[in-house]
Amino acid sequence: MIHQNLMNVGCLLAAISVATSHSIFAAVSPAPTKSAGSGNPNMPPSKQSASPNAATAVCNREEEWESNAVTVVETAVEIYQTLATLIQRSPRSSRMYYDNFLYVAAWLLLSGLQGQMTHTSQTGSEKGTKEDKGKSPSKHKDGSRINLTKIQQGYGGLSVVLASQALATLEKLLEPNGMLETEETQPTPVGSAGFDVTENYTHSQRIFRLLSDLPLTQLLFHVATVSYRKSCNLKRIQKNGDGETVSLSDSATYYDDDDFSCSEESSAAEEEEDDDDSEPILGHWFEETITPPEPKNGKNKGGPHDPEDARNASKSCHRNLDISLSVPDKGEPHGYILLATQIFAFMNDHMLCSPRLRQYTINSLSEHQLILLSAIVKDLDRETARTETGTIAAFFGQTLGQLFSRFSQSLARYTHNLLAYELMSPSLQIALLSHLNVNPWSEEEDWPLLVHPRSLAVLAQVLLSKHRKDSKEESRQTSEAACLSIWRRLLETMIKYIEDPHVAGDRDRETEDLNVEHAQLLLFLFHSLQLMQKKAILLLCAQTLIRAAQAAFSIIPLHDTQLMLLAR
Questions:
Q1: Which domain holds residue 458?
Q2: SS3 breakdown of the chain: % helix, strand, coil, rounded to 5?
Q3: Does one domain contain both 415 and 461?
Q4: pTM of the model
Q5: Would you give the distance in Å from CA 450 to the centre of its chain?
Q6: Which of 301, 439, 452 has the alpha carbon at shortest distance from 376?
Q7: Among 239-243, 380-384, 385-389, 459-463, whose mean pLDDT is lowest?
């Protein structure tokens, strides 16, 4: 048993070392934006001819390194899984040895991922290292100091496989068979577990060691956020890859500390203009008429179909979706979004719904994680608002669309249970709503007109949780006051835009109109209020209509924004 554990530790350490070195190398290496054949016109002809050969040699050498790294990681994971199966099925080993084996593997994988993110974030930041010398060690562990953009530059498929394997190991370690040890008949354990696989550690000791040595909540949020960002960035590169030269480096993408956007407003507007210009004169009917019908057997007569290409495509798709054993292909977003889905599903099932880890989630959850959560929610809302199906565009294929849909569902379940189990303090709830730009207790800003469904769901759940029958009278009054504040601020924002349309023009075009989902929530909140509060809202609506009528008669002609808001 000891030799098997040493072999397992050696394999996992080799995989972690290779993945970390690959991540650091990718973070500091600039990605070329031009092809190897485009030379400099000012370069001498002899150097121009030698430049493509040198670039080709460098590319071949990097591909060989990546292939060797993939082989090392996949072989290490395969050996680990083989040893785990052997120990689990061996008649000579008890459940204790298997749980200790999983516990050591989980500690190694999670510690390796944490170290990889820390070292990759600090890569090339000599100035930050000098500034941190005189600061306390606690400030070095602050999650806000980790540069997720730098981590994303070096984040690759090797880290995806190791993170997926860490999640699978934790799930096995938290299985009911492993949790229901004879702890009731045993005395209360003192201290945490060690790393001797032959010792009789209890489940509580193993979990206590994992949670005390590692910031599990922060680590999982960082991995999920970076995975989601990476998948969106690769998805965007695939979209712009037809006929365009795009940098493979993520450093060209702007990410704020508190927010990030993986969608492109400007490109969407340009595509809409191009679609208007490319519309056939006689419509789609004429285009369908002159298009030759496809053969009934579904085969393409333009050229022979290569079965070998189909087999290779099937292997590539399977490789990108099976991230527990295979490293996903470089440049494919499937593995990254699949890992992000697994992380939120794991946190929902084991860290929210499980009573054993629920208290740990309460103590470890901070505003930094809520910033990342709200950024993902808003970005998904922006991404899916442009499509009728509520998912990403059909341009990216059915498989990727289904993966993003699963991720959206996993994120929605996690957010719902996070609020339903009341694991956040009132200050954290307000912080989450503030980062979603729907804080009803803030009087500083105008109330947004366009609020997407995911953000509305969070707002509605927070308000209704305070408005339940079993809630205290103070909570009910706070919820009702928030509903009145939402209505008042919304009416003030609309009349401000009607009286001065230039104010609305200075804001984003997303805030120009009131969406249907937002209006439905407002009506629902209105009917949940008491009679006198409903009368107060109706009086506010009447006063707003009077002011709007005065503005409509005084401003001729009315702008489009004013007409639209008057109709609302």
A1: 437-567
A2: 70, 0, 30
A3: no
A4: 0.78
A5: 22
A6: 452
A7: 239-243
